Amino acid sequence: MTAQMHEAGRTKEAGNRLQAWRTGIDTYQEPVVYMRRDCPVCRSEGFTTQARVQLTAGGRSIVATLSVVDGDWLAENVAGLSESAWASLGAQPGEPVAVTHAPPLDSLSHVRAKVYGNSLGDAQFGAIISDVAAGRYSDLHLATFITACAGDRLDLAETLSLTKAMIAVGDRIDWGRPLVVDKHCVGGLPGNRTTLLVVPIVTACGLMMPKTSSRAITSPAGTADTMEVLAPVNLDVPSMRRVVERTGGCIVWGGSVRLSPADDILIRVERPLDLDSEGQLVASVLSKKAAAGSTHVLIDLPVGATAKVRSAHAAASLGRRLQEVGGAIGLQVFLRVTDGEQPVGRGIGPALEARDVLAVLQGTREAPADLRERALRLAADILEMGGAAPAGGGLKLATEVLADGRAWAKFQAICSEQGGLRSLPMAAHLHTVESPGTGRVTRIDNRLLARAAKLAGAPTAPAAGIDVHARLGDRVEAGQPLFTLHAQAPGELAYALEFVRARPPIFQISENV
Amino acid sequence: MTAQMHEAGRTKEAGNRLQAWRTGIDTYQEPVVYMRRDCPVCRSEGFTTQARVQLTAGGRSIVATLSVVDGDWLAENVAGLSESAWASLGAQPGEPVAVTHAPPLDSLSHVRAKVYGNSLGDAQFGAIISDVAAGRYSDLHLATFITACAGDRLDLAETLSLTKAMIAVGDRIDWGRPLVVDKHCVGGLPGNRTTLLVVPIVTACGLMMPKTSSRAITSPAGTADTMEVLAPVNLDVPSMRRVVERTGGCIVWGGSVRLSPADDILIRVERPLDLDSEGQLVASVLSKKAAAGSTHVLIDLPVGATAKVRSAHAAASLGRRLQEVGGAIGLQVFLRVTDGEQPVGRGIGPALEARDVLAVLQGTREAPADLRERALRLAADILEMGGAAPAGGGLKLATEVLADGRAWAKFQAICSEQGGLRSLPMAAHLHTVESPGTGRVTRIDNRLLARAAKLAGAPTAPAAGIDVHARLGDRVEAGQPLFTLHAQAPGELAYALEFVRARPPIFQISENV
After folding, report:
1. Which residues of A touch B429 (CB under 8 A)?
2. Dist CA B241 CA B434 (whole Å)
3. Residue A152 — pLDDT band, cuts 50, 70, 90?
4. Is A5–B50 a contact, with Cβ atoms under 8 angstroms apart?
5. Which of A24, A62, B221, B281 could potentially form a cystine with B459 if both were Cys, beta carbons 3.0 to 4.6 Å apart?
6. Residue A26 in domain
7. Hey, which family's this protein in (chains A, B)?
């Protein structure tokens, strides 16, 4: 060791401490640290912007991306933390923070190999997912990994490796029962909020269904977003366990129970990129089901020209992949292919979808028949798969339980255990788009509809979204309402409307049909 | 239009103005705007973190990524701009800034199509590159595009479309001459700094060679980084033109002449990701050569097990692609495959490489013979391809011009015109790694060597890098120096040394050879 190395060693011990300071900057989920260019740490360590640094305070370490600052608002002796860095480091204001180079990320070489078209195995996916779950990947690294696995770039063996790696970094709930049912919808269909109906129906029939749901990734509302309008969903595992023990079921946000820490991190980049991947979808869904302690899982696969799954062929291929990987990790996977040609129910967006759900549960005149029928079909499958109804007898039982109010009572009990049933918020800014001509509705573009609902503010603004007034095959007159945009802020209403006006018509009205 | 829409229109006119404020936050090149969560714009427009927003001041507009802030250091009525947002918006402190939703980025659907494995055509690449050049892509979008095109995912037609799209968004210099020569090295070989020798040799023989070079993307030094140690390289087009008119050549940074605005933006994400793509490499190189007004281009393709091009087969494939695309856009492309088994010269890193270049130009005893020979070979090719020497006579002419001092005089003239020859900086913190045993050097891992040089601070710290003391085939004794790490900061020296110690040996010493 040379004289310089001894000096370097000393620097490492003493010279690299700053004081923790909360900047209040929301960088979404990527941890960022702000340090003055002329602070002692940047000078001695040679740090520049975009460097990945390790922050250590009170024995806890995180990796963050550095932004160097020239500006008096940041003191020379502080490490300014973004909100996510502040939360994950858990430091006290003014507490000493040691700042060092982040350890080299060797698993990135596997990501690079995947980008270049090579196949990865258990060890490589294990290394990548373990680094992802530990927060060692920057958003750029995550974007590269997700893109490299997107489309159909993961084969069966790779999808299984990824699934196992994602299960390995999380916890797994043991319910002490031989049969725990679950469902998942592959999505892409606005308003398809059947979970909020299926869970109360099947738990009212004695099955156990501890449902963890996701927030929206690329859609205007995830099931967790919609449920949150009606009851708290940010439960931890002990609270979730209490709700399930008392009611047989729950509908909580999977991110708060943190059963799939890697998945929660990947989702933060999938959302702004609006990318899906078959392999990642399978790994994400099945690792969460395994972690939640499920044994029997029904997968709803809506198929339609503008849904996520666009053909019966694609549904069969995805379904087979789900069953193969499920079998390899000890999950029995059942499939139900459903019609995905148009939105389900009337509302798109958290509050508008929740309103439809309540109407079905309460059997009111406004209850959308399609949402009710889809939920009954899926509940019937689960009742039969779980042995609560004889083969072919599921639909009759599900229909009775919904009609006689047992499902509504069960839903209220679940909401109450999760923290209390809430009343629905309403949007203040509305605009109705009318039919330009007279004719029949021959096509509805789900993707444009979902994008317009997102531009109107959904799901961040829970009352925002779209109310759909016409369905496929309906006859409409010129000037008749097709759909209404709901927004909580005037700027968002204007933005969504501008989008709708600039695109091809979302509803195709044909005169001679 | 409803009452709400009129209200939205009014808000858009008046309510969305904040005052420009320079935060001094360096976010590398991504423009970021910091706004208080409770500011009037966030409240009226419903903006949340990660939103892409359009900022307009004095008729100039940019798109930036929003970070929402809860914190008193940022005033309620300001739009806090990152350094890159501040520079590109060009606002005055306190100037009103209008903040609106960024227009929807329709070209992202093409990126998504490419991610899912579809081929893109002229129109799609044109739309993507035009949005990239206009700064409408976030770093996450750029990472997705780059990953989707990485490896060999672009076919010939797509590579040509991308090249044409990149040329279309930039300027093209017209030198008014039928023959303008250029060279490019595909890279991956530390220390291969032949450009600084080739330009003075061939311009001393009367050819015109206006060389724009890049900064390091994934290497410890780019040609522009090395040249910058010796003379200013941040010239604009008129200054570059003046240098070339007076001396016949130049060596400037391509990013400052801004001939390839899209390429300059893509590189900002390629660097942290350490990703290369054949299609993007071809498009990047050839679009820059076309923009610089070159007509005849020599491509140096170093081949070696740990170089960027690893086999003669890969070199032939890449070379063919460069010639095909070059031909289609009117560039004559010549190839020279060179040995890429070990670093060139002794130094790795801007200042250490510049020192080697000066030794060759001045013919001193320390001049690395391999660097000298490689440069003479390439200069000879260019002299013949440009008609300054008869076929087979290039090497003799190049050798004479270097030996008699004309090349050194020309290099000084070019440096002087670019702003003056500078003296070399030296690193303060050194550590020499010695051979663990006695034997012959049978393998040198260029990739690990380059990574260690980067961890030591190169190229951001110009004096940082590695001095290599042994070459392939050399016999070394135990304890004999193999290489010396140079760093400007003690932390960086420690970090690089830690890396070297944790990896397999960079130099393989075999006893029985």
Report:
1. 4, 7-8
2. 48
3. confident
4. no
5. B221
6. yes
7. Belongs to the thymidine/pyrimidine-nucleoside phosphorylase family. Type 2 subfamily.
